[in-house]
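Lecture notes, unit on binding sites. The following record was shown on slide 14. It pairs a sequence with zinc ion.
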Amino acid sequence: MQFWFFFIFLFSTSCGKFKASDHKKGIGGRQFNSTDAVFNEYIINFEKHAIRLGLGSGFKVGDIPINFGDAKGHSAICISYQNGQHEVLIDRSAWKIVKNREIIVFHELGHCKLELDHDDHKLKLANGSFKTSVMNSQLLSWRLYLFNDYNEGFLQDLFLKDRSLIVKEMTALPPNTLEFFLKSAHQKP
Ligand SMILES: [Zn+2]
């Protein structure tokens, strides 16, 4: 039996010892067929935002089980099998320490459900560079994600592939506020 894997190993600057989330492909059956109830609230929110942003009134995450498991050194992974099945495995230790868990689940569903690749675009401003996507290969700072209306900007980037709102809002912020985010991006979540 042949196995092939696709890994991009990148260390996260915002998640301590854990590597960034990743997307893995391989042959074989998935480990779980149902989702751990812990993740239900995040799935419901993902669906709610998708519907609100126009991805269809019947939008469902569907058959993508999310469970704690061996994330191969990453905080979480989306595994897409060649038989068409998907699953998300989340490292239990990473889950315990991360400040905003929605970022992890939404990132993996971005891979597994929305079929997105990583988006490492950064907005370059006078005082630093700032991640503009939940799909950045290194976990997004929870401070950035939750600040003011940024959450909406990041959600529009994720679901609509439209970063114009987050770019507009970041560009409008005073430099000292942006410097605060730049520092916090290198702390543990
Ligand atoms: Zn990823």
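Take-home: Strands lie at 22-26, 66-68, 76-81, 86-90, 122-125, 128-131.
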